[in-house]
Amino acid sequence: MIRFLNEDHPFRITNKLILKRWLNEVIASFGFSTGDIQIIFCTDEYLLNVNRKYLSHDYFTDIITFDDSSEGKLNGDLLISIDRVKENSIEFGVSFEDELNRVIVHGILHLIGFKDKSNQEQKKIREAENRALLKLKELIIR
């Protein structure tokens, strides 16, 4: 089950049903099933504290993914800074909604097993994000 939660930010996601259907389809397309996935919206400060505490990183980020998957079932927490997504959408010249969807599917792809440390890994995850975002647009059009 995919759940959308808030930690310290009042943001509310729209189109929950479409997004859940989309993410379930992305997960299934890689041969996995959906377990318990929490997508948690928060502020920059909250995510910075998590980054420091659990990853020993002292910088802002848009998402941190905690993976608890096992035996083909995806489980985990995706913590997403709404502040960072807003700033990145402006920087990259895309809508807030498009950037948020990219960040959400990026976290899902990490649960699936995609990495993004090397240039080659970044290219592969970006391609997978783009394919997934096309699927979302198809769902919205239907």
Quick overview:
Helices cover 54% and strands 20% of the residues.
Strand content: 15-25%
Biggest sheet: strands, sense, closure? 4 strands, mixed
Radius of gyration: 14 Å
Q: Helix- and strand-based class? A: alpha/beta
The CATH class is identified as Alpha Beta
**From N to C, what is the helix and strand string?**
EHEHEEHHH
- Average per-residue pLDDT, rounded, comes to 95
Helix count, per DSSP? 5
Shape: globular
CATH architectural grouping: 3-Layer(aba) Sandwich
Overall helicity: 40-55%
End-to-end Cα distance, whole Å, is 23 Å
Overall number of structural domains? 1
Weakly predicted, low-confidence segments: none
Instruction: Using the coordinates shown, work out and report the CATH topology.
Output: Collagenase (Catalytic Domain)
Q: Could you give the order of strands across the largest sheet?
A: 1-2-4-3
At the fourth level of CATH, the homologous superfamily is Metalloproteases ("zincins"), catalytic domain
| DSSP, total strands | 4
Describe this structure as you would to a colleague:
The protein is of the alpha/beta class. It is 54% helix and 20% strand. The chain is built from five helices and four strands. Helix 1 packs parallel to helix 4, helix 1 crosses helix 5 and helix 3 crosses helix 4. It is globular and about 40 Å long.
